Amino acid sequence: MEGKIIKDPYSYIVSWAEDRYPYTGGRVFSYSSLLPISLFLPHIIHKGKLVRPQISVLVLAPSGCAKTDMTNDIKKICYKPYNFTHNTGARIERDFKTMDVATIIINDLSRILKDKEMIKVLESLIEEGQIERKTANYTYDKEGIKCCAYMSGVPQDLTSYITSGLIFRVIPIYISHDLNEQEEIGKDIIQNLEVEGVDGTSLKNIIDYYRTLYGIMSGKSTKYKPVVKIKISEEQRIKIYKNWVRMLEKLEIENNTNWFRELYDGIRMACSLGLLNYFNRKKYKSENGVILELEDSDINIASKLMVNEINVKFKIIMLEAIKKKLMVAKELG
Question: How many CA atoms lie within 13 A of 194 on its CB side?
């Protein structure tokens, strides 16, 4: 691995993605770069209750936005990919009977949405890390599965079923390009076309970096110890909380919607950023590993990402509410 990625892995990965996919990659990988490492986060505990530390994302973008290419990049980067296009809820449950850790990758969400049972299974894995099935022939119930998901689709996939359930269990990333951005993307295509020769150095550095972290956190490294606890100061926690409150007040969130998941996401992303920066964060020896201390930069980036997540979710939910009102108005004539 080269020194640049070790010095600032988050900026390195996001910059690489934005250069590879102008006006798209930076937005997607600002969240997706944290997804693989979230599988290895220590438990988040609130008053004795375990809160899942994993991050999942849903990329919504029109055709032609390189969704498939970005999905292929994620497959190469992520830990234990579980990729499918056609599947059933029962098949997923059978597969996860023998899997304790996985990254679910779905490139065509529209096909999956036709099976509501499958969506329920996915929600259970993403939210609770568990599978449960009872039939006349067999019964099984498994908990403690570490699972995150990278899903992509088109904006038209935003049905009421998603906006009432799945959308709250993932971080939505909405991509659209105005005319100026499309012209700039087109210019980038023309200027960087090559007949032969592909420079995969940056992507290889990224893949190698993640694999190194996977080895450390899996306890396979003889040189580095896994992180068993992440230290977040009271001041840092309050900063995330204040940013969360400020956004809810700005959007005038109604009383009938709760946004606690997004606050947890702020913590998850801050911890993921700290772990992604394993080699340049303060660490203290502990039993079975090390305690990693977050820096203020982790909190600042995580707060920014959390605020954007809330804003996008709010707009999606409001759009769905408007659509429902228009449908009622149409029925009333």
Answer: 5
Q: Could you count the other beta carbons within 10 Å of the beta carbon of residue 311?
A: 14
CA distance 246 to 218: 38
Over residues 17-63, the pLDDT tens digits come to 999 999 999 999 999 999 999 999 998 888 888 888 999 999 988 88
- How many C-beta neighbours within 10 Å does residue 165 have? 14
Helices (H), 9-146: 9-20, 25-32, 35-38, 67-77, 89-96, 109-112, 116-128
**End-to-end C-alpha distance for the chain, whole angstroms:** 65
Q: For residues 269 and 35, is the Cβ–Cβ distance under 8 A?
A: no
- The pLDDT tens digits for 113-125 are 777 788 888 888 9
Residue type, 281: R
By three-state DSSP, how is residue 151 classified? strand
Asked if 150 and 35 touch (Cβ cutoff 8 Å), the reply is yes
Rounded to 5°, angle at Cα 79 from 58 and 102:
70
- ∠ CA 111-106-28, nearest 5°, is 125
CATH superfamily of 3-332: P-loop containing nucleotide triphosphate hydrolases (3.40.50.300)
Report the C-alpha gap between 205 and 77 in whole angstroms. Answer: 10
Check: pTM over 0.85? Answer yes or no.
yes
State how far the Cα of 11 lies from the Cα of 286, in Å rounded to an integer.
29
For the residues of 73-113, what is the DSSP string, one character each? HHHHHSSSEEE-SS--HHHHHHHHTT-SEEEEEES-HHHHT
Residue type, 53: P
Cβ contact 157:110 at 8 Å: yes
